[in-house]
């Protein structure tokens, strides 16, 4: 169980990060709306997508899991801050689902990083 739980968490976070890529890269109207509202369209949308892609892949490579989790914490932490300051919890009548997914991803990334903390070389 000690090896299965971290792997499951890594897969869940990677799927969440990688699943949202098509919305960002294909300029889905909701994604464009969000990034316009925070003043980062199109470069922020594309840059965020690239960063999430990198984090998602790193989460699936055993030696780089902690790096992927750290990147995920940073990028999703920024998304949560945008929700709390500029977007609001509910975006386009989504009942807060996008915000809830961001919070879940942030928490799971933190748990992964905590589990993998001994693998971080400079600590």
TrEMBL record:
This is DoxX family protein. Keywords: Membrane, Transmembrane, Transmembrane helix. It comes from Aquimarina algicola. The keyword Transmembrane applies. The chain crosses the membrane at residues 96-115.
């Amino acid at each position: 169980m000690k090896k299965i739980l971290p792997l499951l968490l890594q897969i869940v976070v990677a799927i969440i990060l990688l699943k949202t890529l098509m919305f960002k890269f294909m300029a889905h109207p909701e994604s464009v709306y969000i990034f316009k509202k925070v003043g980062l369209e199109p470069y922020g949308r594309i840059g965020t997508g690239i960063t999430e892609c990198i984090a998602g892949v790193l989460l699936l490579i055993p030696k780089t899991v902690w790096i992927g989790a750290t990147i995920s914490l940073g990028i999703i932490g920024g998304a949560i801050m945008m929700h709390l300051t500029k977007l609001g919890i509910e975006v386009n009548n989504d009942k807060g689902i996008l915000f809830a997914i961001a919070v879940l991803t942030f928490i799971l990334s933190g748990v992964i990083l905590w589990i993998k903390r001994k693998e971080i070389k400079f600590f």
